[in-house]
Amino acid sequence: MRTSKGARAGQYAALLAYLVFLAFPFLWLISVAFKPPRELAGLHPTWIPENPTLDNFRQAFDEQPLLHAGLNSLVAALGAAVIAVLVATPAAYVMARRRGRFAKAATGWVVVSQAFPFVLLIIPLFLVLKNLGLINSVAGLVTVYVVWSLPFALWMLAGYVRAVPRELEEAAAVDGAGPLRTLVSVTAPLLAPGIVATALFAFVTAWNEFFFALVLLKTPEKQTLPVVLTHFIGAEGVADLGPLAAAAFLATLPSLVVFALVQRRITGGMLAGAVKS
């Protein structure tokens, strides 16, 4: 009994340490965002600002087009999430339900493709987008984000498809439904948690992505929010810390809000009772 209590206490302590480790950067970011310049330059930093101010937020909006850049990021992230889900859902269904060399090869390629670094992909992607006339466009950036998130989306949705009982699809086939009708009317509704989770992954990945946006977008009016945040750093590497923290804090809010809205849908089990014994 003592060993069990000690192990449980150790687990809670490790979990608490992990949560503190994850929360520290975000909490410190919030603290810096509301501190005036004098406190930021102090030798003894404090967690809670002594004289909180909104001047950093006003200065951030005055110095950089955060709203326009945020709109570009939103369009790119939503476009990537929607297209990735529309493409990955039927492809994942085929991968999960069809057995053969093609399905095994596709699954293997999905796993291997995740090991490719960004630098290895950017040159061929740049050449392809240049030939298609999609350089310096949000549409080209959406295309890159879909290509980048699609392998993981396929792997993720395929696991959800395998969890759907085959008896439901067999019953639909007996009633005369074809593969497409079965996917749309029977399987897809049961995949709602997986589809939401996949869309969330694609959205957050595109929203926070920096490297591809930096290389592909040249004009300021096309740049996304992560690229615009780098403009708060001067030519000599000196950061305008207060406005940078304020802008970075605002940039993290959409991801947190989206996750808060859909986290119940992700964790909720929608297959309970789908098959009667």
UniProtKB/TrEMBL annotation:
<protein>
    <submittedName>
        <fullName>Carbohydrate ABC transporter permease</fullName>
    </submittedName>
</protein>
<feature type="domain" description="ABC transmembrane type-1">
    <location>
        <begin position="70"/>
        <end position="262"/>
    </location>
</feature>
<keyword id="KW-0812">Transmembrane</keyword>
<feature type="transmembrane region" description="Helical">
    <location>
        <begin position="12"/>
        <end position="34"/>
    </location>
</feature>
<dbReference type="Pfam" id="PF00528">
    <property type="entry name" value="BPD_transp_1"/>
</dbReference>
<keyword id="KW-1003">Cell membrane</keyword>
<feature type="transmembrane region" description="Helical">
    <location>
        <begin position="244"/>
        <end position="262"/>
    </location>
</feature>
<dbReference type="InterPro" id="IPR035906">
    <property type="entry name" value="MetI-like_sf"/>
</dbReference>
<dbReference type="InterPro" id="IPR050901">
    <property type="entry name" value="BP-dep_ABC_trans_perm"/>
</dbReference>
<comment type="similarity">
    <text>Belongs to the binding-protein-dependent transport system permease family.</text>
</comment>
<feature type="transmembrane region" description="Helical">
    <location>
        <begin position="135"/>
        <end position="161"/>
    </location>
</feature>
<dbReference type="InterPro" id="IPR000515">
    <property type="entry name" value="MetI-like"/>
</dbReference>
<keyword id="KW-0813">Transport</keyword>
<feature type="transmembrane region" description="Helical">
    <location>
        <begin position="108"/>
        <end position="129"/>
    </location>
</feature>
<keyword id="KW-0472">Membrane</keyword>
<keyword id="KW-1133">Transmembrane helix</keyword>
<feature type="transmembrane region" description="Helical">
    <location>
        <begin position="182"/>
        <end position="207"/>
    </location>
</feature>
<feature type="transmembrane region" description="Helical">
    <location>
        <begin position="74"/>
        <end position="96"/>
    </location>
</feature>
